């Protein structure tokens, strides 16, 4: 796999700094039942990295005393971590909002037969990957049969009350482009998703999030192999909007790796790009000693993926119209 960090560190991306911490995003490991082409984590079925119970509780200890009100769980497939459910239950007891970044097909993995019910019982918000509403496109990006399984999973979640009025169970979908291009306008694409999924499969959801593909790990390496890395970076830079800088997610979020190390965002974590104000790796057990407000954020050229077009974050577009 081609390393992309050396291609990104010489950057002119604007300096940005932290605001009040609102979200703790935790990568529970790289084990996944899928192996997607756009994956910035390089996750897959053969990965062994998983957060252990001691680190899970170190995260929970920090969550309890921090200003963060949201625990955002990601992976890999976060549900495959053996301590996923324990973490969810304890965070919910604290009154925290819990987001599960779910690939949908994990609901049908052996041992996960009651996962959907567990998520509903604990009022977990689901942000689910569905990179297109067409079977051919999804299967080419994520693997044969993934679309059919994803549709079945969404139908299961709807039956449990997800995306139903008054249920309190939120179900969001995530779109990723097929390749080296920016996502379409989020609201227009959401309208298309909503109509097709409703008409064809009787599926309902709350929101669609469009997320720009990051030029790192598996996707970045593919760009290098195809000789299109520089062209994609030019597209991101030329499409960047200063307005999006005000709302980038790293200003109110910290990312925790499976070993408990702290980063400015999930993408910096994958690049092992340390926070600029620490001399060595910062562990979650040490984070409570620091006041993060006003601290600088590590940036490189990949950050342009968050400010291109409508902007991109774990919550989708940053602006309501194309810039």
At the first level of CATH, what is the class? Alpha Beta
The CATH topology name reads TIM Barrel
Poorly predicted ranges: none
Radius of gyration: 19 Å
CATH superfamily: Aldolase class I
Biggest β-sheet description: 8 strands, mixed
Average pLDDT works out at 92
Strand content: 5-15%
Number of domains: 1
Task: Tell me the distance between the termini.
Answer: 34 Å
Tell me the CATH architecture.
Alpha-Beta Barrel
* Alpha-beta classification: alpha/beta
How many distinct helices? 11
Oligomer: single chain
Residues in helices, as a percent range: 25-40%
Would you report the number of β strands? 8
CA-based shape: globular
Q: Write the H/E string, N to C.
A: HEHEHEHEHHEHEHHEEHH
Strand order of the largest sheet: 6-5-4-3-2-1-7-8
Characterization of the model:
This protein is of the alpha/beta class and 323 residues long. It has a single domain, classed as Alpha-Beta Barrel (TIM Barrel), CATH 3.20.20. The chain is built from 11 helices and 8 strands.
Summarize the structure.
The chain is an alpha/beta fold.
Helix-strand blueprint:
Blueprint: H1 5-8, E1 23-27, H2 53-65, E2 70-74, H3 84-93, E3 97-102, H4 115-121, E4 125-129, H5 135-142, H6 146-159, E5 171-175, H7 186-201, E6 207-210, H8 217-226, H9 229-238, E7 253-256, E8 262-263, H10 266-271, H11 304-307
Parallel strand pairs: 1-2, 1-7, 2-3, 3-4, 4-5, 5-6
Antiparallel strand pairs: 7-8
